[in-house]
Amino acid sequence: MLKKLDELKKGETGLIKKVEGEGRIRRRLFDMGVTPGAEVYLRKVAPLGDPVEVTIRGYELSLRKAEACLVTVEVK
What we know:
The protein has 76 residues and is of the alpha+beta class. The protein has two helices and six strands, in the order ββαβββαβ.
């Protein structure tokens, strides 16, 4: 099942299928290791839903909801 990264529930794991966005935002996500084929685990969600903390490529990363909604994930 495909979902956006910001739609995952705490504790869910998935495989990144697509990274949308343009220019600087897309490049920034790629530079942080958010690339197709990477496994991502949703660790925490802030009380108001922004930001979310994920584990990707062995490190913890916080993403704004606006960035997380650009990432399509296949839920395992």
